Amino acid sequence: MTGVHENASLLCGKDPVYYTNTIGIVVDWVIFLIGLPEVCLAFYALLRLLKRDKAAPIFVINLLLSDLIQIGITVVFIISRFFDATFRPFARARCIARLFVRLGLTSSLGFMVLISAERYLMVACPVWYHTKNTAMLSSLISLCMWALSLAYSILDYFSIYTTFSLLVFSIICLFPAPFLVVFFTATWKSLNKSMAMRHDMKHKRRVLGVLGLVLGMYIVLFVPFSSRNLYYSLKGDNAEDTEDSVRDLSGVLTSALVYLSPLIDALIYIFLRRDIRDTVEAFPCCKTPLMKLKVFQERLTDSSQTGTALQLS
């Protein structure tokens, strides 16, 4: 069967067609060159603003950590492409790197669900959220999520049944779907019923913005990938040769979408801030231009008020 490239990997056996395809090569470079600085900037700005707001979106921080794992491990695949595919050290490195890819993807899905649940509780149960939802509790939940993701990744790494492994991973990727839809719908209804939120349109847009971004990102990036893998894992390896090109191309395209998810995750940070000025002020290099702009605006306001007063007199 075409679409796989034989190598000297011991446990994971074969490289997926994504590894040698031009689309996969381009996507990996985009993830590394654009995604790495983007996620690092979002992570830095988030930590810096936490010192001022004293509010810790633990789940968003962990989501960015999972993105850093996925982006960082891309370096292994980028470098190994400069060597022969059967070169044993890089073949083994790619095999181990896929464990971290699984870890990053599964933990990312888990924290997407936790972020949606947190936004829902913030609206539906505000008293409990502000009194019982401590940083310690969120940290313990995050540790449990990391432990579950790592346990699954290790089991998947040592799995010798490729088709069964793909089936399990497809089910795991589809598992968050009902939760994300329910949390978005329930939060939207709670916001409409809440008297406090009804007049605070900015806060309402921020809450729905986070949930809408998470749900939209999951539908666009993860659903095609998991649906395609579920279909071919159930169909088995008895496909005709004419279907190989469709199988390979669909695998490359859906994998590329999933691997681009860290570029979208960083946008969640924007919806946690009150406005664009609040976001820009997180970076020290932007404070001086903002101060100069503020002084310039105040001078313009003063001069316009003075001119109006002279005309009236």
From TrEMBL:
Protein's name according to its UniProt entry: Lysophosphatidic acid receptor 4-like protein
Species whose genome carries this gene: Lates japonicus
Segments crossing the lipid bilayer: 23-47, 59-79, 99-122, 134-155, 161-186, 207-225, 252-272
Annotated G-protein coupled receptors family 1 profile domain residues: 38-269
Top-level taxon: Eukaryota
One Gene Ontology term of the molecular function aspect: G protein-coupled receptor activity
Gene Ontology BP annotations: phospholipase C-activating G protein-coupled receptor signaling pathway; positive regulation of Rho protein signal transduction
A Pfam family it matches: 7tm_1
Lineage of the organism: Eukaryota, Metazoa, Chordata, Craniata, Vertebrata
Topological type in the membrane: Multi-pass membrane protein
UniProt keyword Membrane, yes or no: yes
Record's subcellular location: Membrane
Keywords, alphabetical: G-protein coupled receptor, Glycoprotein, Membrane, Receptor, Transducer, Transmembrane, Transmembrane helix
Record Gene3D superfamilies: Rhodopsin 7-helix transmembrane proteins
Chief localisation class: membrane
